[in-house]
Amino acid sequence: MAEMPVLHSRRSLTLRFDIPISKTHEFWNALKEGRFVTTKCSKCGNVSFPPQADCPKCMKNEFVWVNVGPEATLLTFTQVQVAPASFTSNDSYIIAIGEFPGSLKVLAWLEGVEPKKVKPGMKLRVEARASKEGNPYYVFLPN
Amino acid sequence: MSRVAIVGVGHSKFGRRTDVNIAELAFESIKQAVDDAGVDKKDIKNVFLGSAGTWNEESLPAVIVNEYAGLDSVGTMRVEAACASGSAALKSAYNSIVCGEGDVALAVGVEKMSEVDTPTSVELIGRAGSYMWEFENYGMTFPAYYALYAVAHMNKYGTTEEDMARVSVKAHHYGAMNSNAQFQKEITLENALNSQVISWPLKLYDACPLTDGSASVILASEEVAKKLTDTPVWVKGIGYSSDSANLSRRSDYVGLEAAAQAAKRAYSAAKLTPQDIDVATVHDCFTIAELMAYEDLGFCKKGEGAKMIREGQTELGGRIPVNLDGGLKAKGHPIGATGVSMAVEITRQLRGEAGRRQAPIKKGMGLIHNVGGTGHYAYVTILSRN
Question: What was the ipTM of the complex prediction?
Answer without folding.
Answer: 0.95
